[in-house]
Amino acid sequence: MLFKNISILNERFEVERNVNVGVEEREISYIGKEMPERDFGEIYDGSGKLLMPAFYNAHAHSPMGLMRGYGENLSLQDWLNTRIFPFEDKLYDEAVYYATLLAMAESLQFGIVSSSDMYYFCDAMVRAVEESGAKANISRSITSFAEGSVKNSDSYREAEELIRSCHGAAGGRILIDASIHAEYTNTLQSMEEVADLAKKYNVNMHVHVSETKDEHENCKAKYRKTPARLLCDLGAFDVPATAAHCVWAEESDMEIFREKGVTVASCPVSNLKLASGVCDVPALLKKGVRVAIGTDSVASNNSLNFIEEMKFFALLNKERHKDPTVITPAQTLYAASRAGALSQGREDCGVLALGKRADLTVLDISRPHMRPVHDLVNSIVYSASGSDVILTMADGRVLYRDGEFLTIDIEKTMAETEAACGKILAAL
Q1: Virtual CA dihedral for 102, 105, 106, 109, nearest 10 degrees?
Q2: 365-411 tens-digit pLDDT
Q3: φ and ψ at residue 33, rounded to 5 degrees
Q4: How many whole angstroms separate alpha carbon 72 and alpha carbon 61?
Q5: pLDDT per residue over 20-44, tens digit each?
Q6: pTM of the prediction?
Q7: How far apart are CA 180 and CA 165, in angstroms?
């Protein structure tokens, strides 16, 4: 495909106008002002449109779309214990498959091509992602409250088999991570064993860290260490890791993240909804920590509208620090795309540049709420809407275009997800 005469968000996260971009197989193979001599197939008219890197959701629980709107106006622990955990106890394979497929559709609709997904029934998730054409880093989240080795548990065996059978599947679109759910849902031995699993297979780690004040302070009281320090000492950060939330991370934790190359996945909307707090992104960036953006689940968010997530990400710390200069739109866009791709180990993704993967999204910038344009980078973050996404491409393949899902039977997917939800509710 050749995107003709289109505005682009280039690799420096600056806008260039009237550019031609050619996509060949899975890569971006031409960028220039002149029309290329070779034939790229379909010519896409870029008038009034912006071509930019697609988004990478750095922390998600896709199957939890089954619980969208189910547990509202509750604190995190109350939400988990009274609503989420009882519902999850009734989950089954096909319910997870259709919920994940619905999440992939919603993701593509909002320009997300890849998600770092932590959950279980992971075989069903892999099947849904592969069929959708999207990408994902999927991890079988492990919790263990029992003393002794976790290696004989179903969850550990599932996690190891998932790595063996699915890491690198679908031409590399699907990667498998290891996952410690959190320090407060595991014993010291289980955390260390899952960390060893990640090192054994050289895969990434995905873990919740310091999401709430109680979680953070209880860990310090129990172990005389912060969650980040504890996880680091147990080896969880000896591989590339994504630490979700980090709302209550201390300065010493930030030093650990920087030293170990940990990516923090900030989830602003979910943290606000559960009143967990606001991740100190400016402090993390100042320390040299990579920060990406996650939605968390739609049970605690309630959507995958990534442009909305970017706006919250950009605005919250302005209020926290009483400083309107912190977190620029360019930093926000980097966090939403390149930083997320790097957190997933996708070095050739997340940026619009020659030779990089053609993971791209097109925004309609001709709409009234986008005019006039003084600085388009600012407008993307502060003025744009999720509905402005009109095309999403992963590995050079168009998956969503002008309201149509090209790889997903959306009517069947919605109907099956609704039916599964009803079946689970009836069993509670």
Answers
A1: -170
A2: 999 999 999 999 999 999 999 999 999 999 999 999 999 999 999 99
A3: -75, -30
A4: 17
A5: 999 999 999 999 999 999 999 999 9
A6: 0.98
A7: 20
